Amino acid sequence: MARLRLTTCALLLVLSTTVFAGSTVENVRIWSENDKTRVVLDLSHSVEHSVFTLRNPSRLVIDLNQSRLGKAFEGMPKGTGLVRGIRSGLSSDGQLRVVLDLNTAVRSRTFTAGPNATYGDRLVVDLQREGSLEPVKRAVEVYRPGRDVIIAIDAGHGGRDPGTSGRYVHEKDVVLALSKELARKINAEPGMRALLIRSTDVYVGHGARVEFAHKHDADLFISVHADGFKDKRAAGASVFALNLDRANRETRKAMSRLSGKEEVKVGDVVLNDKEEAVAYALYDLSKNAAMSASLEVGDYVRREMGRVAKMHSDNVKEKSLAVLTSAEMPSILVEAGFLTNPAEEKRLRDSKYRSRLTTAILAGVRGYFHKNPPPDTQIAMDAKRKPERQVRHVVARGDTVSEIAERYNVSSADIRRANKLPNDRIRVGQTLSIPIFAGGY
User: Fold this and answer.
1) Overall fold of domain 20-129
2) What is the pLDDT of residue 83?
3) Distance CA 280, CA 274 (A)
4) pTM
């Protein structure tokens, strides 16, 4: 009977070894810097775990479900920083307990990370001295953000100039409502900022509108208008870009100012200190680039507007318009529809329709700048800064987006973008995808 029991026990031991399908801890790594210590457990695959602290003496206990040390495990590393030593033990229910003996009371955070080119699954434990005044290293210390793309929005007419009129509304009022809605949406877009040339019912001269956009270094000028025609059947929205003849006239006007005291600039280049031939060539190059960009961004906007509005033309129109004169920035003019058409006037007076229309305009602007971002902008830097991998973070009580961003050396905007969060509201138990970039943990 005794021999039978021994044989049965041996068989059970063999079977338990054979069917073990939990995770194994292959290695433990530790390093410390500036009152912060990180411990990383390299795992054969992800594992459920729990963490709690003990006092007198201070310890951090990590319980790993259905886990054990790997066959090739070479032993726990020596303590460093906040950790005096590391030890482990295996309970009868298959739970591996790893104990960090601490030098002092700490605040702790744990998260799991998936495989990358160097390591497999990991459990990461971050420790910081309790009550330490030293802030966690912020993402901005390792990654300097770029500037916003600036969109100048020009609500046409205004004040003493009502523009065209429908039966119930003037153009100046409709386009101001459209411009404010578009500005609000642009300002909510990561990496973009709107500049309203007029925000009230005032008249602004054409030259002053463009000059205002130049003064604030706008990357794009959008003039918003509504159409009118004697035939009430005329309908449809349009998008315009600068006409070549108008651009050439502006070039000649700028060149004529070179001999005067007024400073003539194209972007950051002062033309007055150049020879006339060089200055003309620089201005001509800038003009051609602005015209080409105007046509391209106009086409993006036209296509998106066509999803929600009837279009008067299937192409971006080139036209000699007073506000489309700049050789320094792409410029387009949007005609939102015909106020002289009763059906279109009704739509343009409807706030829900204006919201859909401005969403379409924003989509076109976004599409253009995400393909052609100015190099010093946040959009350009984000395009170069593709995440190497994603890690999962389960939101714990007390977590905030900004604190999680600090922990992973990313920005709050990175986390919002990766998880399509409209704001910084998160809930306990929610799983977030964290984009990890080169230079991260």
Assistant:
1) Immunoglobulin-like (2.60.40)
2) 93
3) 9
4) 0.54
